[in-house]
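Technical note accompanying the year-one report. For the benefit of new consortium partners, we illustrate the data format agreed upon in the data management plan: each record pairs a sequence with a structure-token string. No post-processing was applied to the example shown here.
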Amino acid sequence: HVQLVESGGGSVQAGGSLKLSCEASGYTMRNCMGWFRQVPGKEREGVAALYTGGDTSYIADFVKGRFALSRDNAKNTVYLQMNDLQPEDTAMYYCAAVKSPPTCGSPVAYRTWGQGTQVTIS
């Protein structure tokens, strides 16, 4: 049974940076793992995701050039480095894991979700 622990959210001014971490306990190899975000009244959307069994990754067009996804297999942790944050990036960010590819960037069918971490940009 996989559990996810997220950290790194907070409040920053526009143009600032934050780094989110998602540590997984349990088996996550050869699965999708990624970050999603949601604001009240809107659907959850994919931000960045990867396949832990290879080099496949996804990053949303609206964060390309600003956000970067990385992983540390030894720590079973995925990171989302967020730079040049803008007010429209304000959302609850969720880590998810345990899904078969290839649609790692879609929130549909992920079996495990973290509790969420709030990111607020002023």
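Partners are asked to follow this layout when depositing records. Residues 38 and 44 are 4 Å apart (CA to CA).
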